[in-house]
Specification:
The complex is a heterodimer of chains A (495) and B (502). Chain A has 495 residues and is α+β, with helices and mostly antiparallel strands. Chain A has 3 domains: 7-311, no CATH class; 319-429, no CATH class; 437-493, Arc Repressor Mutant, subunit A. Chain A contains 16 helices and 14 strands. Chain A has helices spanning 7-10, 64-76, 182-200, 240-259, 305-313, 319-330, 334-342, 346-354, 359-377, 388-399, 405-416, 422-429, 437-450, 452-459, 466-476, 483-493; strands spanning 14-25, 80-81, 88-91, 101-104, 111-120, 123-136, 140-144, 155-159, 166-172, 212-222, 232-237, 267-272, 277-283, 293-294. In chain A, the strands form 3 sheets. In chain A, strands 2-5-6-9-1-10-11-12-13 form a 9-stranded mixed beta sheet. Chain A has a 3-stranded antiparallel beta sheet with strand order 4-3-14, with no helix packed on it. A two-stranded antiparallel ribbon of chain A has the order 7-8. In chain A, α3 (182-200) runs antiparallel to α4, α11 (405-416) packs across α12 and α13 packs across α15 (466-476). The termini of chain A are far apart. Chain B has 17 helices and 11 strands. Chain B has helices spanning 2-6, 9-17, 23-41, 49-64, 107-114, 157-164, 181-187, 221-231, 249-253, 276-291, 307-322, 343-354, 357-370, 376-399, 422-426, 433-438, 466-484, and strands at residues 44-47, 76-80, 118-123, 170-174, 190-193, 214-218, 262-266, 295-299, 402-406, 441-450, 453-461. Chain B has an 11-stranded mixed beta sheet, with helices on both faces. Chain B is globular, with a radius of gyration of 21 Å. The mean pLDDT of chain B is 96. The chains are: A alpha+beta (495), B alpha/beta (502). Chain A binds chain B through residues 50, 53-62, 89, 91, 93, 95, 98-101, 150-151, 156, 289, 291-293, 296-299, and chain B through 82-84, 90, 92, 97, 100, 102-104, 106, 201-206, 208-210, 236-240, 317-318, 320-321, 324-327, 330-331, 342-343, 367, 370-372, 375, 379. Chain A: It comes from Tessaracoccus palaemonis. Chain A: Belongs to the GatB/GatE family. GatB subfamily. Chain A: Residues 347-494 form the Asn/Gln amidotransferase domain. Chain A: It is an enzyme of class 6 (ligase).
Chain lengths: 495, 502
């Protein structure tokens, strides 16, 4: 049996079904059930109290701001908002869960039955949202010794700073009919959620810090089959690119097993960033019994219709309208616009245009240059240490002729390295294009003198040969010469 | 000295305010009494004599400096060992928490300290409040001061016995299915379960969250009202806490008649299974209430018949979840951590050694009742019964102001008598459970003796109508005392510190 099937080939036999569970960490000032600071990082166990440590006798009190954020997310996903719902206890053991149950929602989510429309390569795909519910995060365990997993570890260190951080879990219905676009649709969906929660101001949505994380359920069924195949759940996929990679990997892995007459094991799988593969985690063959019941320590949540309507009025521009507006203003094709969305840079591009760059220039820097650097650094694009204003500043230098495109990339290097504003980087690194005729003239004379043969050809009217001399002058000037000016000088001197 | 410890709380407060008595003197008297009787009765699991005397002296100093203090400032109190206290261990009567000193004070404890009460120690209880006899405590049973061969009720037997034996004038308990009222009944003391949400649960180690309610254990109705006034009221830290004005409970306890009060006698809580002595004392009390001006009705609450089985599904279900945190990893007992056992084995060994039989029994019942496939049949059905019980109360309170019944079907049983028969043990809370299921207010008041052992009368009032308990209880208390010529506890036999049988 081959380990992986050919991606294009498998789509002639199988239909993929996706299910995406996205956890969004809310950026409320305090935690879900207590007054501790909700801050990423910090010395271990410094943002804790009896409640988030789950000490005997402690009781939760729900964070009203988290409920508000949950409702706004639900509304932005076109969901219905429950007029009455409760928190539930999900009873299971987890080494860094303080109470050995998680306070979550079960059959009474705050938001349900929504949808998201996504444009992928000119096609519109509707992803139906089953529910968005509130829950608390667990702490963070570091297992020391052995393989780094709890089994075989010498000891475990636990940091409860994250315990009790408010989360919204957004669960889709099975996503069907995406065919070969399944990985891209999944990526576009996660990118959409990121933009959405950032626009709502309810989350930083930093995937590399885990404040937005995706679990991807994937199954394959023979084309024409009337039921879904057995699925696997790939946990904690934490970049947009990984969402795409993990899904196509799982599709090719599952197809190879099915082609061979094998059976897919229902299990959770871990995704490996380094090589884009997945490996088995916990087997789900014996289904967990979470013994859900209504959380008796918390009162029901009953948002009034008036409040929900007030919150609806605060929603940012709906993504589809925003897209129509920006695409019309910028004049991009669907593919070019889609590339911006998929790189997670829509807001960044918008802000760069607002800072004075042309849409084409803003798109070019973010979607090509900066997306590549984010990828290499393994972070989301908005985690780069460069602002839209700085990118617009780099483009302004190009427009003024102070740097060329090649030098502009070095300016970006400098900004990312914390060397200051673009103009300062040009100064410090001595990157400005030299158009001073004296210095250029001397360099041109030097190159002509060293290449009498080429000079002779040009004198004979073979102007195309000038390119070789221009290259040498550029080299001598370490790329900082104004190429057009150099060409003029050569032709003048050899006229 | 002997007179001092028998005074009512109101009287003790008056004397301290008048400068006739210091808190230190009173605290010393209580500590001496505890020292004399505790080896026999096993009421206190922990006594903090130094801390108590320091707190007493602090109150005396404030009073001497002319500070205006509340009516309970300087009064010693015992606290059930399931309240978190920063200066004393909180064990919940379990080996699992032996020696555990919490890093925070329960709201009730905080309010006691703020009001200047002197916490002398932590009282014995059934393990994690599971039981009706205080026999499931890992630290041994508490004995009933009326007869040391008998149980003091449960789970708050320690708090009730502390008050009944004059070790302290006041104690606090917690009532999940009757754990304040049932011990109150069998020790001849007053036990109040306020309306659910009336007293904060924050820092009370949870047994069954939707049923647990802190409340007072005292020797008189007025004492209970004074104590509830201190510990009750809204608390941000308990989301079930009621943010409503609390009526004047002390004034209600001082009311002198019951004219216009309509009292319903619950027909389901009499007859077969009730000891004749209990029913006789109850009937006599009903006549006294009638004589005090109350109108008496028979009221049927048919769903109460199913309260006990429904309770024994809901309570273990919540408990199984609440006790899941005791895994030997972060606090309390850790067993088998000798480098030869895995983390999972250490958890199993800690639970095996840390929890007693009753705790294990209920954890298993609760886990089963919540499990997939059984949820609807057990937990779901029990919740429906709960709704029916609430409906019975609502309907009853349309026609009467309060409902009454015996608090317990029998007087205190003998230590060991029911330990091997959980079902017979559970029957001790038969009459008290409906109030927890409905979240309303109820209390037990002493109404006489049967064969030399106390009998209790239960009063049940609608949610947030706690003052009705105090009005009925206060009038009944004065009527009985004038009939007997003294409070019931004056008949407490001298406690024979030699006569304890193992």
């Amino acid at each position: 049996m081959s380990e992986l099937a050919d991606y294009d080939d498998l789509l002639t036999r199988y239909e993929p079904a996706l299910g995406l569970e996205v956890h969004v960490e809310l950026n409320t000032a305090t935690k879900m059930f207590c007054g501790c600071a909700n801050e990423f990082g910090g010395e271990p166990n410094t943002h804790t109290c009896p409640v988030c440590l789950g000490l005997p006798g402690s009781l939760p009190v729900i964070n009203g701001k988290a409920v508000e954020s949950a409702i706004r997310i639900g509304l932005a996903l076109n969901c219905s908002i429950a007029s009455w719902c409760r928190m539930a206890r999900k009873n299971y053991f987890y080494p860094d869960m303080t109470k050995n149950f998680q306070t979550s929602q079960y059959d009474e989510p705050i938001a349900f039955d929504g949808y998201v429309d996504l444009d992928v390569d000119g096609e519109t795909y509707r992803v139906e949202v089953e529910r968005a519910h509130m829950e608390e995060d667990a702490g963070k365990a570091t297992h020391v010794g052995g393989s780094g997993r709890i089994t075989g570890a010498d000891y475990s260190l636990i940091d409860y700073n994250r315990a009790g951080v408010p989360l919204i879990e957004i669960v889709t219905k099975p996503i069907l009919g995406t065919g070969d676009k399944a990985p891209q649709v999944a990526r576009a969906y996660v990118a959409h959620l990121r933009e959405l929660v950032k626009a709502l101001g309810v989350s930083d949505a930093r995937m590399e810090q885990g404040s937005l994380r995706c679990d991807a359920n994937i199954s394959l069924a023979p084309i024409g089959a009337d039921r879904l195949g057995t699925r696997t759940e790939t946990k904690n996929v934490n970049s947009l690119r990984s969402v795409e990679t993990a899904i196509s990997y799982e599709m090719t892995r599952q197809a190879a097993i099915l082609d061979d007459g094998g059976r897919i094991k229902q299990e959770t799988r871990h995704f490996h960033e380094a090589d884009g593969t997945t490996s088995p985690g916990r087997s789900k063959e014996e289904a967990e019994d979470y013994r859900y019941f209504a959380e008796p320590d918390l009162m029901p949540i009953a948002p009034s219709a008036e409040w929900v309507e007030e919150l609806r009025a605060t929603l940012p521009e709906p993504p589809a309208e925003r897209r129509r507006r920006l695409q019309a203003a910028w004049g991009f094709s669907d593919i070019d616009f889609g590339a911006i969305v998929n790189s997670g840079a829509l807001t960044l591009v918008e802000e760069t245009v607002a800072a004075g760059a042309t849409p084409a220039a803003a798109r070019k820097w973010w979607v090509t240059e900066l997306a590549r650097r984010a990828n290499e650094a393994g972070v989301e694009i908005d985690a780069l240490d460069i602002t839209p204003a700085q990118v617009a500043g780099v483009q302004a230098l190009v427009d003024e002729g102070r740097v060329n495109d090649k030098l502009a990339r070095q300016v970006i290097d400098g900004v990312l390295a914390g060397e200051g504003e673009p103009a300062e980087v040009v100064e410090k690194r001595g990157l400005a294009v030299v158009s001073d005729t004296g210095a250029l003239s001397a360099a041109v004379d030097d190159v002509i003198a060293k290449n009498p043969d080429v000079a002779a050809k040009i004198r004979d009217g073979k102007v195309a040969a000038a390119g070789a001399l221009i290259g040498q002058v550029m080299k001598a000037m370490r790329g900082q010469a104004d190429a057009a000016r150099v060409r003029e000088l050569i032709l003048e001197k050899l006229a | 000295m002997d007179d001092l410890i028998r005074l009512s709380v109101a009287e003790l407060g008056r004397r301290m305010a008048a400068g006739e008595l210091t808190s230190e003197e009173l605290t010393r008297a209580c500590l001496a009494r505890i020292e004399a009787l505790n080896p026999t009765l096993n009421v206190f699991l922990h006594v903090d004599a130094e801390g108590a005397l320091a707190a007493a002296r602090a109150v005396d100093a404030r009073r001497a400096a002319g500070e205006e203090l509340g009516p309970l400032a300087g009064v010693p109190i015992g606290v059930k060992d399931n309240y978190c206290t920063t200066d004393m261990p909180t064990t919940c009567g379990s080996r699992m928490l032996q020696g555990w000193v919490p890093p925070y004070d329960a709201t009730v404890v905080k309010r006691l300290r703020e009001a200047g009460l002197v916490i002398v120690g932590k009282t014995n209880m059934d393990e994690f409040a599971m039981g009706s006899s205080t026999e499931t405590s890992f630290y041994g049973p508490t004995r009933n001061p009326w007869d040391t061969d008998r149980i003091p009720g449960g789970s708050g037997g320690g708090s009730a016995a502390a008050v009944a034996s004059f070790m302290v004038p006041l104690a606090v308990g917690s009532d999940t299915g009757g754990s304040i009222r049932q011990p109150g009944a069998v020790t001849g003391t007053v036990g109040v379960k306020p309306t659910y949400g009336g007293v904060s649960r924050y820092g009370l180690v949870a047994m069954a969250s939707s049923l647990d309610q802190p409340g007072p254990c005292t020797r008189s109705t007025e004492d209970a009202a004074l104590l509830q006034a201190v510990i009750g009221g809204y608390d941000f830290h308990d989301s079930a806490s009621l943010d409503v004005p609390v009526p004047d409970l002390v004034a209600a306890a001082q009311a002198d008649d019951l004219s216009g009060v309509r009292i319903g006698v619950v027909t389901e809580f009499q007859g077969e299974g009730y000891e004749p002595g209990v029913l006789e004392r109850f009937a006599e009390a009903v006549e006294l209430l009638r004589a005090a001006g109350a109108e008496i009705f028979e009221v049927s609450c048919p769903a109460f018949t199913y309260a006990l089985p429904a309770y024994y599904l809901i309570q273990p279900a919540e408990l199984s979840s609440n006790l899941a945190r005791f895994d030997g990893m972060r606090y309390g007992l850790r067993a088998g951590d000798d480098g030869t056992h895995s983390a999972e084995q250490v958890m199993n060994l800690s639970r095996e050694e840390g929890f007693g039989r009753e705790a294990k029994r209920r954890i298993i019942i609760g886990t089963y009742a919540l499990s997939a496939g059984y949820y609807d049949a057990y937990y779901g059905s029990a919740q429906k019964v709960r709704t029916l019980i609430q409906a019975d109360f609502t309907k009853a309170f349309e026609t009467v102001d309060v409902l009454i019944s015996p608090t317990t079907p029998t007087v205190a049983f003998r230590i060991g008598e029911r330990m091997s028969d959980p079902m017979s043990m559970y029957l001790a809370d038969l009459c008290t459970i409906p109030s927890n299921m409905a979240g309303n207010a109820s209390a037990s008041f002493p109404c006489g003796l049967s064969d030399g052992l106390p009998v209790g009368l239960q009063v049940m009032a609608p949610p947030m109508a706690d003052e009705r308990l105090y009005r009925v209880g206060g009038v009944l208390e004065r009527a009985l005392e004038s009939a007997w010529g003294h409070p019931l506890l004056n008949e407490l036999p001298t406690i024979d510190t030699q006569a304890v049988t193992a």
